[in-house]
Amino acid sequence: MWTVLLALGMTIPLSVVAWRSLRLLRVLAERGVQVRELAISDGLTGVSSRQHFVRTLAGELARSERRWSPLAVLLLDIDFFRRINDGYGHAVGDQALVAVAQAAKRALRQCDLLARFDSGQFAVLLPDTEIIEALLVAERIRAQTGEIAIPTENGIVRFSISVGASAALTGDRSPDELLKRAAQALHAAAAAGHDRVVAA
To answer: 50-199, superfamily in CATH?
Structure first.
């Protein structure tokens, strides 16, 4: 039987070395899959990560320009999310995030992409969608979020979302331009009193 000579003069059968090497490779491969999954999805809500969203948006933006097809983006922000975390604890805040993600998914098509974008913020990519249609989707998500009720020791937690919507324009060169307009619309929604949808 083939053996491997160690520094201390001990020998280990080559079959054992091969088996351990294969086992190590298998573990590393599994961890590689986990790392890739973490790179494309949010661990808490299961929706896409910000990085994956931006990469996908870049591809869809290029496709939209080639085919002259419409494209829209929504930015959703849980109103006063920090107050939920501070007042009820991060566990309740996490429940709110999961509930919003589920509400948004119910309002979306298979081809749409939902992502966790920031602490209490989500983004939605709507391919082949005009701004008017995007606003209807945003209103559906806003209405469904308004029905969320999270029971806690200190009573029921209810909350709203503000939404900024923007459509791809001829000449948009990067996702940043589209997202910047959506962010401006989101800020306008918050400034107008929250719990509303505003288009850029």
So the answer is: Reverse transcriptase/Diguanylate cyclase domain (3.30.70.270)
pTM value? 0.81
Whether residue 108 contacts residue 137, with contact meaning beta carbons closer than 8 Å, is answered with: yes
Q: Which two tokens stand for residue 196?
A: 């509303």
Q: Average pLDDT over the chain, rounded to whole?
A: 87
What is the DSSP secondary-structure string of the chain?
A: --EEE-TTS-EEEHHHHHHHHHHHHHHHHHHHHHHHHHHHB-TTT-SB-HHHHHHHHHHHHHHHHHHT--EEEEEEEETTHHHHHHHH-HHHHHHHHHHHHHHHHHHS-TT-EEEEEETTEEEEEEET--HHHHHHHHHHHHHHHTT--EEETTEEE---EEEEEEE--TT--SHHHHHHHHHHHHHHHHHTTSS-EEE-
Mind listing the pLDDT tens digit for each residue in 160-187?
999 999 999 988 888 999 999 999 999 9
Structural domain boundaries in the chain: 13-40, 50-199
